[in-house]
Amino acid sequence: MDEFLNFDWSFIDQIGDNPFIAMGFFLANGGWVVLLAVILWGCSRLWLEWRQTLNMTKKTYIVLAIDIPRLTEQGPRAVDNMFAYLAGAHSGPSWKDKWIDGYTQDTIAVELVSIEGHIQFIIRTTRKLRDLVEAAIYAQYTDAQIVEVEDYAYKVPNQYPDEEWDVWGAELIPVKKDYYPLKTYPYFEDKVSMEFKDPLSAMFESFGRMGVGEQAWFQIVLTPIAQGDYVTAATAAIKKLTGQKVEAKKTFLDKAIDLPLQTLSYTADAIVGSGAAPAKKDVKQPDFRMLNMTPGERVVVEAIENKMSKIVYLCKIRFVYVAKKAVKSNPRIVQPFFGSIKQFNTNNMQSLKPELKKVGMSGALWFFKDWRNNGRKRRLITAYRKRSNWVGAPNFHLCTEELASLWHFPHTLQVKAPQLKKTEAKRSAPPPNIPFG
Q1: Which of 401, 403, 399, 420 has its CA nearest to residue 411?
Q2: Between the CA of residue 282 and those of 276, 279, 285, 288, what are the distances in Å?
Q3: How far apart are CA 47 and CA 52, in angstroms?
Q4: What is the CATH classification number for the domain harbouring 321?
């Protein structure tokens, strides 16, 4: 014990102000373990990225065009069920799947596209998920028609500036933490008549007004995930809003710092004695704010709980308006689109806004504005084509109810957009008495 208390600190004088000597001393006295751990971690990341890149090159993707039934009275609730079914695409990889085979979760991109005023619903995913996607749609819309088509996103340039074409686009990001929900389709149902006023009808109208040489693309990339982490974060948020105690989960770094401190504490106790145990403090009952919450605060907590109860995806949302320079008009297309999106925004909960600092085209840039915006155009078009779920702004969580509000097949008896692609004939099953063989 005397040797421990009389530890020789003279090595500090040997180091002096020379950083190289300090680094050498650090490595020679156990620091090499930390350095080795960092190197191994970096190598593991490079290995994983290499294996995942090889795996992704083997995947084949398809683009499916969906023609909705000419007459349908189904609203977003049917699409809500469809998104819940599509969550079956999630699968947790084993150690071998992840580190040897380079497993990555297959994504599903749902899109609403207007090509010169002709509106089409699109789903793009891997070929192996085609049966899952078709089953999800046919289960809710038995008369829908699904056809594999060529990818429309490759029919315009992706290098800008271009002599003939120009682009405006952005990603949509949440204003608050993503456990706060958007306004969803139940808010658009009349409580008395139960009539549903489709918030996307304005978008269908503006998309249907586009002329020759104009295209508008609305894309939501869905990544199916395990639900545990999101539920944990949402539960912690509810506890915080209601005044309950939230125990912070210690990270690996916190545990690494606590270990030597605990060791020193135990050593000191062994040397000088632990002394008398401190007197126990009176345990007070937690003061829950729920009893004193305003009606508006209660609504927010209930909305977060409602979102937490549903299946969530990691999402990325993009909007692109691409047109020939002779006819391009941002105010006529971009502003109506964001007007449609604002219907889902609330001041007390969640809102979506365009990300214009790093991803979207911005007129507020001071230096090299054209050069920087052209670079953003190239990156945005490329990310849209690849349906990337990581390029651009961070992903965020949306539940099936929110997704069905932002992207759904219209109630055709209410939405009168003439350019909306619909099925031409009703599908029917064959007669049961047809002979086979």
Answers
A1: 420
A2: 18, 9, 10, 18
A3: 9
A4: 3.40.462
Helix (H) or strand (E) holding 341: helix 330-342
Strand, coil or helix: 160: coil
Tell me the pLDDT band of 434, cut-offs 50, 70 and 90.
very low
* pTM, two decimal places: 0.82
Query: Within this chain, do residues 40 and 121 fall inside the same structural domain, yes or no?
Result: no
Q: Are 64 and 118 in contact (CB under 8 A)?
A: no
Within this chain, do residues 117 and 99 fall inside the same structural domain, yes or no?
A: yes
Condensed to tens digits (0 to 9), the pLDDT of residues 217-276 reads 999 999 999 999 999 999 999 999 988 877 766 555 555 555 555 655 655 555 555 555
Count of the separate structural domains present in the chain? 2
Residue 340 pLDDT level (bands cut at 50, 70, 90): very high
Domain that holds residue 46: 20-58
Angle at CA 295, nearest 5°, toward 290 and 298?
45
Structure confidence by residue, pLDDT tens digits, 15-40: 556 666 666 666 666 667 777 888 88
Q: Which amino acid is at 154?
A: Y
Residue pLDDT, tens place only, 73-126: 788 999 999 999 999 999 888 888 888 888 889 999 999 999 999 999 999 999
d(CA 2, CA 318): 67
Residues 6+ apart with CB under 8 A from 242: 288, 289, 290, 293, 301
Same domain, 24 and 87: no
Both tokens of 165, joined, read 């074409």
End-to-end CA distance of the chain: 93
DSSP codes joined into one string, 83-144: HHHHGGG-----HHHHHTS---PPPEEEEEEEETTEEEEEEEEEGGGHHHHHHHHHHH-TT-
Indicate the burial class of 18 (C-beta count within 10 angstroms; 0-12, 13-18, 19 or more).
exposed
